[in-house]
From TrEMBL:
Protein name: Tryptophan 2,3-dioxygenase
Any Pfam family the entry gives: Trp_dioxygenase
PANTHER family recorded: TRYPTOPHAN 2,3-DIOXYGENASE
Task performed by this protein: Heme-dependent dioxygenase that catalyzes the oxidative cleavage of the L-tryptophan (L-Trp) pyrrole ring and converts L-tryptophan to N-formyl-L-kynurenine. Catalyzes the oxidative cleavage of the indole moiety.
SUPFAM superfamilies registered for this protein in UniProt: Indolic compounds 2,3-dioxygenase-like (SSF140959)
Reaction equations catalysed: L-tryptophan + O2 = N-formyl-L-kynurenine
Species the sequence originates in: Rhodococcoides yunnanense
Length: 284
């Protein structure tokens, strides 16, 4: 079928009557979604819509990251590493999208942002419970963070639950132990309510897998997928810090943090420290 006068003919089979059918808009509940952007600046500043949409889309992607990481953990609980890694692979693609999104917000100049920043009050991305949920599932837990969400019972309950549950990494070691790998007791019996920290006892097993990866390919692949996951997370944190620096310099954050300095400290946090440390040991 050719195109004439730069107009594409609508095929006769295309559905156009949605009086009693589900449409694209109704399926996605676009009326609700597109009415959720409510600028608070007075008079309404042109660039506030960008700021709102940037953070709302981030929250939508974080919702999917939580969904996928919890599914990955459940798969590991069932000793299904393949399905777990499929979920992790999807998360990695989402992370790349989230990281690239910072370039859109970076088009907001300091002058433009300063014209509506005061209207935000103390609202801050620091208060994103879904971001904290991702950190908790990946093992970077901090019980002190729950205080931020005491006024939001649903968010507080979710984070409290995740705080007391094994992380994705914990579930991985439990799965390997059930498969016959010599996982040290210190990795299986740790206090899961605390942030995961480097465990020297795991190094012999990890080094063994890397040096014999052909015979232990599934575990070796999982190690590398986790390393990708952490690296992507760190890249996201770095782009976040640099975007904030570009936009507000060294001002304090709206939520009361020191701003860039606080974000820089996040770059020192880790999820899978042994998988990075083993790089120094390989080939020795």
């Amino acid at each position: 079928m050719s195109v004439e006068a730069n107009t594409r003919a609508i095929e006769k089979t295309v559905v156009t009557d949605f009086s009693d059918r589900m449409s694209y808009g109704s399926y996605l509940d676009l009326d609700t979604l597109l009415s959720a952007q409510k600028p608070v600046s007075t008079p309404e500043h042109h660039d506030e819509l960008l700021f709102i949409i940037q953070h709302q889309t981030t929250e939508l992607w974080l919702k999917l990251v939580v969904h996928e990481t919890l599914a990955a953990r459940a798969a590991l609980d069932a000793d299904d590493i393949g399905t777990a890694l499929k979920c992790v692979a999807r998360v990695k693609h989402i992370q790349k999208t989230l990281t690239e999104q910072w370039s859109v917000l970076a088009t907001l100049t300091p002058t433009e942002y300063s014209q509506f920043r005061d209207f935000l009050g103390n609202s801050s991305g620091f208060q994103s419970y879904q971001y904290r949920a991702v950190e908790f599932v990946l093992g970077n837990k901090n019980a002190g963070m729950l205080k931020v969400f005491e006024s939001d019972p649903a968010a507080h309950e979710l984070l409290s639950t995740l705080l007391h549950e094994p992380s994705l990494y914990d579930a991985f070691w439990q799965s390997l132990a059930r498969q016959g790998y010599d996982v040290p007791a210190s990795a299986l019996d740790r206090d899961v309510t605390t942030a995961y920290t480097f465990n020297e006892d795991l190094m012999p097993l990890i080094k063994f897998v890397y040096e014999n990866h052909t015979e232990h390919w599934a575990v070796y692949e999982a190690f590398e997928e986790f390393v990708d996951l952490e690296e992507n997370f760190q890249l996201w944190r770095f782009r976040h810090m640099r975007t904030v620096l570009r936009t507000i310099g060294l001002k304090s954050g709206t939520g009361g943090s020191s701003g860039v300095g606080f974000l820089q400290k996040a770059l020192e946090l880790t999820f899978f420290p042994e998988l990075l440390a083993v790089r120094t040991e390989i080939g020795r």
